[in-house]
Amino acid sequence: MNLEQQVCSLDLAKRLKELGVKQESAWYWKHNTESPHGSIDEWVLVHYDNEPYQVGSEYHVAALTVAELGEMFGESELPFYDDGEWKSAGYYDLPSGRQRLTADTEADARAKMLIYLLEQKLIQATT
Predict the structure, then answer these.
(1) Helix, strand, or coil here: 43?
(2) What is the strand order of the sheet 42-47 is part of?
(3) What is the pLDDT of residues 47-63, one digit of tens each?
(4) What angle, 0 to 180 degrees and rounded to 10, lies between the N-to-C axes of helices 10-18 and 106-119?
């Protein structure tokens, strides 16, 4: 399993940041403004020990791990693997019943559920 499968995707990480989720992680996405590939919009995954995260920077976004995401909402939101994809079933009392979201990785399944819970104001972000 490669590292990108163990942290949430860049798009989900950006949305979590917008929703006020704390930007504390061992890993983060860094906007690489000096890309050797000539790309002006390249993001790379960086470990905090190699280059400290700059809090508040628009060029840094926490790449939350499966474990870090799990700590944010506890055991009530356990993703499971079924038919080749990760699924997350919410156990909150919603008017529509359980909410099920799917993703390619467990980290993204957890991130999607956290985003859903924050957007529906069922939980609050810890900053």
Answers:
(1) strand
(2) 42-47, 27-32, 60-62
(3) 877 776 666 677 889 99
(4) 20
Instruction: Output the pTM of the full model.
Output: 0.77
Report the first-to-last Cα separation within the chain, whole angstroms. Answer: 30
Q: Which residue has the tokens 């924050």?
A: 118
For 18-48, the pLDDT digits (tens) are 999 988 888 999 887 665 665 567 888 888 7
Spatial neighbors of 107 by CB under 8 A, at least 6 apart, are: 5, 6, 7, 8, 9, 64, 65, 66, 69
- DSSP string over 52-104: ---TT-TTEEE--BHHHHHHHHGGGS-EEEETTEEEEE--S--TT---EEEES
The answer to whether the beta carbons of residues 62 and 24 sit under 8 Å apart is: yes
